[in-house]
Each structure stands twice: as structure tokens, then as C-alpha cells.
Design brief:
12 helices, mainly alpha
């Protein structure tokens, strides 16, 4: 499975890289501010939540100190959630959005999910790099413990890609899936401790968060970026298992229906 995927990436790397470049250009080339919108959108979102919730959360975050505590907490969640949301949304619609290419060109269809996931990850790296610069210049960089986010990102991408490809294939045959995912992500965002701190919600809600894979991942990022502590790896084992299972299921679903996708489109 993995070997076939790596072979496809290696053989068609030129096509993949050109497609990622075209995707980036098509998003921002014709706009006046260009790629700056990539930065402005999450900053605007973070600014709104900070203005609304900062005083409320600061009063309930007794274990946090410093003027930037809530902003760092918020950025750690909003930016990584943005990666998840963009990846999942893109993959759910990837085959439908590229129907013409699938019908006209001959290439491994798995290249399309790779392009979508890579584009989302590059966008994330750009805005996350600015967040890291802020941490460095404000004296809040976590040091060597920062590299603990690498396994978190790997787990998150496995989870996102597996779920996205699985739902993306289903969406070709049942078009309601795409609409459902858009609504689901809105509820999922608020069911994840990004804007609020989990200690501020009722106990029954905190217990329910244990079954939210993204909650465990986001809290891992927040632990590293704000508290300068390694994530709770024990709490991440279930998420890791779910991510691997979803990745395998997504691949098998794609392999099984790869030929049917073009016919259905």
C-alpha cells in the first residue's frame, strides 16, 4: 500500500508540484493583496475571538500568566484546526472538483488527494511560521519541546487524509456527504477546546471530549506551545490508532472504487 503510494508520488512528482503551484496561484494571483489573504483570514478570526473571550478566559485560566497567554492558546488551536478543516474540506470534494481532469488525463488518481493535502499543509506552514516568529520575539518560544508537535502533525495528517479520502469517495456516489461535512465541521469546531478551556465546561462535556480525536490533538499543541510541556502521549494512543485505521480504510475505499469514480462523474 505505502510502496505503491510512494511510487506514484515519485513518478508524478512534477505533476504534483506543478498542481500545488497552480492551486496557490489560482487562489491569490488575481486578488489585490494576493497571498496576504492567507495571513489575514486566520488573524482576523483570532482577533475576534481574543476580543470576545480574552477577559472571560483569562479569569478562568489561573495556570496561565503573561499578556499573550490566551492569544497563544488560541493560535495553537485555530491554526492547527485550520489545517484539519482545509484538508478535510478539500479532500471531500477533490474528485468532484476535478471531474474534467479525471476524464481527460491519464494519471494515478491518488495524486489528487496528495495535491490537496500538500497544498493545505504548505498554507499551514506559512501562517504557522509567522506564529513561531511571534513566539520567538515575545520570549514565549517553547524551546526543544517544540519538536513534540512533529508526531502530532503526522497523526493529524493521517487522520485528516484517511477520513477525507474515505468521505471523498463516498461523496462521488452520495453528493449529500459534502454538505454534511461542512455542517459537521462547524459543530466539531465548537466541540473542540480551541476558543474555550476544557476546565470551564461541565464535567459531562469534558468526559465527552475524550471521544473527540481532534480535542486530544489540539490540547497536545496547546500543551507544547503555551505550557512548554510535552503532550500527554497516553491520551494520544487512541487517536493514533483511529488515524491509522482511517488511513488504511480510506486507501482501501479509494482502491476499490477508483475505476468507478470516473464512470460516476
Amino acid at each position: 500500500m505505502l510502496l505503491g503510494l510512494l511510487k506514484a508520488i515519485s513518478r508524478y512528482r512534477g505533476f504534483i508540484l506543478d498542481s500545488i503551484k497552480r492551486d496557490f496561484q489560482s487562489r491569490y494571483q488575481s486578488s489585490f493583496l494576493g497571498a496576504l489573504w492567507l495571513i489575514f483570514q486566520p488573524i482576523a478570526m483570532i482577533a475576534v475571538y481574543t476580543l470576545i473571550f480574552s477577559e472571560l478566559m483569562r479569569a478562568r485560566m489561573s495556570d496561565m500568566s503573561g499578556p499573550y497567554a490566551y492569544s497563544i492558546y488560541l493560535c495553537s488551536g485555530v491554526l492547527t484546526w485550520g489545517l484539519f478543516s482545509e484538508t478535510l474540506n478539500g479532500l471531500v470534494n477533490v474528485f468532484i472538483a476535478n471531474a474534467n481532469i479525471l476524464k481527460k488525463l491519464s494519471f494515478p488518481r491518488i495524486c489528487l488527494p496528495i495535491i490537496v493535502a500538500s497544498s493545505a499543509f504548505i498554507n499551514f506552514l506559512i501562517i504557522f511560521s509567522l506564529f513561531l516568529l511571534f513566539l520567538v520575539f515575545s520570549g514565549n518560544f517553547p524551546g526543544w519541546i517544540f519538536f513534540s508537535i512533529i508526531p502530532l502533525l503526522i497523526i493529524q495528517m493521517l487522520f485528516s487524509v484517511g477520513l477525507g479520502v474515505f468521505l471523498g469517495v463516498m461523496n462521488v456516489f452520495v453528493r449529500d456527504i459534502g454538505q454534511f461535512v461542512s455542517i459537521l465541521l462547524q459543530f466539531w469546531f465548537w466541540f473542540t477546546p480551541i476558543v474555550y478551556v476544557s476546565s470551564t465546561i461541565p464535567e459531562w462535556a469534558r468526559d465527552a471530549l475524550k471521544y473527540n480525536p481532534m480535542a486530544n490533538l489540539i490540547e497536545g499543541y496547546q500543551s507544547v506551545m503555551l505550557y512548554h510541556r510535552a503532550p500527554d502521549w497516553n491520551s494520544l494512543w487512541p487517536v493514533t490508532l483511529i488515524a491509522i485505521v482511517l488511513f488504511v480504510l480510506g486507501w482501501k475505499m479509494f482502491k476499490k472504487h477508483s475505476a468507478d469514480i470516473v464512470d460516476e462523474l
